[in-house]
Amino acid sequence: MKHILAVTLSACIATINASGEAFTDTPYDETWDRLLRIANIAYCRGINEFAVCASSYQPWDDRKYDDSASSHPYVFHRHHPEWGNTGRFWDYQARCAALLRKGSPVVDLCVYIGDDAPLKTFSYKLPEIPEGYNFDVCTSDALLNRMSAADGLINVTGGMSYKAIIVQDRTHISPQAESKLLQHSEQGATVIWCNKGETTEDALAKAAIAPDIHIDSDNLPDSKVLFFHRTTPDEEIYFVYNHSDSAYSKESRVRTRFKTLEYWRPATQERETIATDDNGTFSLNLSPYESTFIIARRR
Question: What CATH number does the domain located at 224-297 have?
Fold first, then answer.
C-alpha cells in the first residue's frame, strides 16, 4: 500500500519512500544486534526511514528511572550501559536508508485484500508468495480508481507498476471489484485468483513471470532470505538479508541488464566485485543474520 500511495519523503518526484515507527517498547535488556534483525526485516518490506517515537528524556545524573528495575524499562536513553556503543547501529541505519531511498521500488506482485472490514493484512489470508518475489497490498479504492492495465502490467497513478495482481483467499469481492479484475485480465494483465483455487507459484510459472532474485532458503519465519529491490537509470539496488541462525551459501541471479555486480556491506562499508558466469549466476554467501547490498550497474 505504501508504494501505491506514493508516500514521498524527499523532493525528488521519482523517489517513493516509506517511514515506519520503530523499536517502540524495546525492553531494557535488548541487544543492538537483535534490533538490527527487526530493522533488516523492515528494509525488506520497503521501509527506508525509522521514526523512534519514544526516547527517555533523562537530564539527571543522580536519578535513573528508566532501567531494569523500573516499571517501564526502555533501551533508548543515555544511561543505558550500552548507549556508548550505539554508533555502529545508527551508522548502519544511515547507510541502508541512503541506498534504499535511491530511485524507485521494484515490486512484482500486488495482493488485493478485498472489502472486508477492518481492512487489514491478515497473514492467514495472504497467498503463499514464492521466494524471489516481493508484494504490496491494495484495497478497492486503489483497484477501482488508480489502477489500469497496459502491456501486460498493472499500472498505478503515481508511477508504480506490477506484473500480477493476486486475489487473496477467503476474500469478499464486490461486483465492481470483480468486474475491474476481469477487465484487467481481458486487457492482458495477469490476475491470480487464489480465492478460486489458483496457486501463486503455478500462476506465475504459467505467466512466465520470473523471480526478481533467485533465492532457495528454508523459507520459514525464522529461517529465510529476504530482499528488497530499487532501481535507477544507472543501477539496480538489491538489499538482501539472511534471517537465520545458519549461514546461507547458494547460487543466485538478479534481474538486471547490467553486467557489473558488486557487494556493498553496510555493516563494514566493504565493497567487493561479484564474479558471475555467462548467465549472470553468482554465489550468494551470507553469515547468520548478515545483510548485504548487491549493486548491478554500468561499467
Answer: 2.60.40.1180
* 100 CB-contact burial (10 Å; exposed 0-12 / middle 13-18 / buried 19+): buried
- The residue extents of the domains of the chain are 19-104, 107-206, 224-297
The C-alpha cell 521519482 sits at 14
CATH of range 107-206; options 3.40.50, 3.30.70, 2.60.120, 3.30.200: 3.40.50
- Tell me the pTM: 0.88
From first to last of the 299 residues of the chain, give the pLDDT tens digit.
556 555 444 333 334 456 566 676 677 777 888 889 999 999 999 999 887 765 556 666 766 655 566 655 666 777 777 778 888 888 999 999 999 999 999 999 999 988 765 556 666 678 889 999 999 988 899 999 999 999 999 999 988 999 999 998 888 889 999 999 999 999 999 999 998 999 999 999 999 999 999 999 999 999 999 999 999 999 999 999 999 999 999 999 999 999 999 999 999 999 999 999 989 999 999 999 999 999 999 87
